[in-house]
Amino acid sequence: MAVKKRSGLGLLPKLLIGTLIPIFVAFLIIGVIVFFSVDLGKFRMTSVKDIGSESLKELTSASLNESKSSLGQMGERMIKEKAIDVATEIELFIKTHPTVKREGLLRDPWLKSIAVQKVGETGYTAVHDNMGINYFHVNPQIVGSDLHDLSTKLPAFWRILEASLKGPAYGYYDWMDADGRIRSKYMYLAHVKDTDLIVAATTYIDEFSRPTKSIEGRMNQIEKSSLEGYEDKIKIFYVVILCVVLVLLIRIYFYARSLIRPIRYLSEVADKISMGEWDTPIQIKEKGEVGALAESIERMQTGVKVAIEQWQKRAEGK
Description:
The chain is an alpha+beta fold and 318 residues long. The protein is built from 7 helices and 8 strands.
């Protein structure tokens, strides 16, 4: 009996390995592309998840910045309009009191109520003349003071105020709150027509952009929820991939067996023929290469059988 020699893996394991490895690699690449960013020095491959997250952040940041800018510009216009309105009211008050001297006007409580008005939530208007002397202010201690004294203590504030001595002026300056926080204020200064008086309207500009903070907080919550959702989706993705791989493994295994079975059968038939079982039936219905192989073995079987019979006849004739 002939001894079967086998070395290495069989056809079925090779077929399974050759089929499954590319599938595993493909799913691995898809997983990396979808969920993981790879940083290789100068080269960076950003995942679909991170692209979506970064795009959301950029869109949110751009929207918030645009909203803050728009609200800030709206705040600037409101402050400007307030300064101009107060200047117009003072002008009308002075014109309607032509007989009252300047000293009497500046002490008039009604004019004071016009000169000092609220701007926004914490801002106010104040009035000084073109020499820098203040006449109306929310803080009584500043009334009558020379604003030139603020040039060293509040240089940014003084630059705007100094410009107002020659004409309309506006700008930003930093102001320290009682709690030590430094916040940005916007000030617009308008001249009272036909007088030496100047109206200053000022308040914190972030009062107008405050709604964007709540929007920003909400967007941060949405982003956090999105990240948590991504983590759940990653788990679901892994479960789906595992199920798909298992289904593919089972399907490929049985498909590979269906391909290998006739080849093994023909191998056994060939072994039997080689051992003298020339009448062994070859029952193969497959077509294609397997069918062609079966026909070749049948021809070999017939040829060997005929050759043996002729040899036997010659031996008997001797």
